[in-house]
Amino acid sequence: MPARLDGLTPDLVSTASAVGSALDAGRLDAALAGIATLLERCPDHPEVQRLHAGILGMQGRHAEAVAAMRLALAQRPQDPAYLNTLATLLGQAGDYDGAIEALQTACSLQPEMALAWYNLGVMLTRSVRNDEAEAALRKAVQHDRDASDARALLADLLRMRGESAQAAAEYRRVLVDRPWSGMAWWGLADLKTTRMAASDVDAMQTAQREPRASDDDRIAIGFALARALDDLGRPAESLQALATANAIARRRQPWHGAAYSAAITALAAAFDPPPAGADDRTLGQELIFIVGMPRSGSTLVEQILASHPLVEGTGELPDLPQVLAEESRRRGQPFPRWVPQMQPADWARLGRRYLERTARWRRHRPRSTDKLPSNWIYADAIRAMLPGAHVVGCRRDALETCFSCYRQRLDNNEYTRDFDDLARFWHDCDRSLERLVQRYPQAVTVHEYEALLASPQARIRALLAFCDLPFDEACLRFHETRRAVRSPSADQVRQPLRQDTVHSQRYGALLDPLRRALDLPPWSACGAAECTRHD
């Protein structure tokens, strides 16, 4: 196979190498500085197309990125590195099935390619195929003992299983070899069972200045640093660390809040009036979808339900978006443009396809959850394709929810980088949940986090009744249930309910910009009382 830079002049080879290095480091500005020259002088060269695809992916232009990469791959169809890049872009676009297929091909072509094994582990983890993910990650470490990201992700899998002490030890071992590993620092900080020390703050501040640290490392370290500063009672410094980390992420991939709100409005209009869905009104009756904002108590709801002997808790499944994406590709139109063309048999076909994809979760228990928070976007489609399913919308105090999202390292949730964007997104989600409850009162409910804290048994009984589940005492003892939980709340749901979860108060007036964005009164108007909204 010809070398990837064959056919380029020496000056263009130098430029392409610089762009590639910038992409590897996650530095979009530096990559953009060189790509214009390459596109002008040799737009059809496969390596230029590959680099351009990587830049488009970093900008969030996923469809364009995948299209550009397919053009490059057509010229080098057996190149494992090109397959690896395509898989990364497919993953960014949410096509985990396609990404896994490309990576499996890359690994078969070059079995010693540690990066492909690591990326395969990432995509399998996102698909909640954890045993396969662990095997792929161990292959990555086998072929590259310095594969710190793979080692950190293996530690994440330990944390998912509730083995927090072992996970912490693994993160620390990664940091010995690679002190600027953002994944390891964030993994350590996100362990709710331990607190970081002042020495960790010093080490993270040093790591942020490390030239070998990528922007991804700096973003993750920034969130970890903020968590440590918060633990040490230094809220102003914590908030500044968050602002810095979010600003880096926002520069790379901005969020267009107004356009997103318009898309949500258009999506609701596409299902007004609701289409004639699947004729079998029991289709999907074994399913419980848990939706809402991240950090709104969705993991806790799933843990309660998964404590029931009839329910399997699955985590954040990618299957619903994947099924809808398959239909979009089949029809050559994006969702929801094809909704008016759908007949009851079409909706039933999609519902059966979802049930087929998720059948493995119901091998041992007859019912299962799907806790992908963003599925509130697709709730109308759920009703059409799976009319027997139940949808639980999770709602928590607006200020607490948004501030928690801002503090959390949430990949591919770019609206969390800015208070105004967060507030707009919260309102989009909340108004959608209200509309859904009014339209489908028998199938959609809103579960209030604060109401659960105030009256746990009554709210748990009501939740089970809505889901057509008999009451079971085990659901009151949800913290005793042992299962893998891949969520920022993994450690909290293994503890009894706590009443001290309000976090915004310790920041006082520092959060007034977020309060203004949410149309809440300033801290001074509330004094020491709770200055939040519970609707």
Tell me the overall shape. globular
The level of helicity is: 55-70%
Tell me about the biggest sheet? Answer: 5 strands, parallel
What name goes with the CATH superfamily of the domain at 258-498?
Answer: P-loop containing nucleotide triphosphate hydrolases
Low-confidence stretches: none
CATH class of the domain at 258-498: Alpha Beta
Supply the CATH architecture of the domain at 258-498. Answer: 3-Layer(aba) Sandwich
Structural class: mainly alpha
The end-to-end distance, rounded to whole angstroms, is: 61 Å
SS strand fraction: under 5%
If you average the pLDDT, what whole number results?
A: 92
Please count the helical segments: 25
Topology, number of strands: 5
What is the string of SSEs from the N terminus onward? HHHHHHHHHHHHHHHEHEHHEHEHHEHHHH
Specify Rg, calculated over alpha carbons.
Answer: 23 Å
**The CATH topology of the domain at 258-498, please?**
Rossmann fold
**Strand arrangement across the biggest beta sheet:** 2-3-1-4-5
Describe the structure.
This protein is mainly alpha-helical. Among the domains are: 146-252, Serine Threonine Protein Phosphatase 5, Tetratricopeptide repeat; 258-498, Rossmann fold (3-Layer(aba) Sandwich). Helix content is 57%, strand content 4%. It contains 25 helices and 5 strands. A 5-stranded parallel β-sheet has the order 2-3-1-4-5, with helices on both faces. The model has no long low-confidence stretch (mean pLDDT 92).
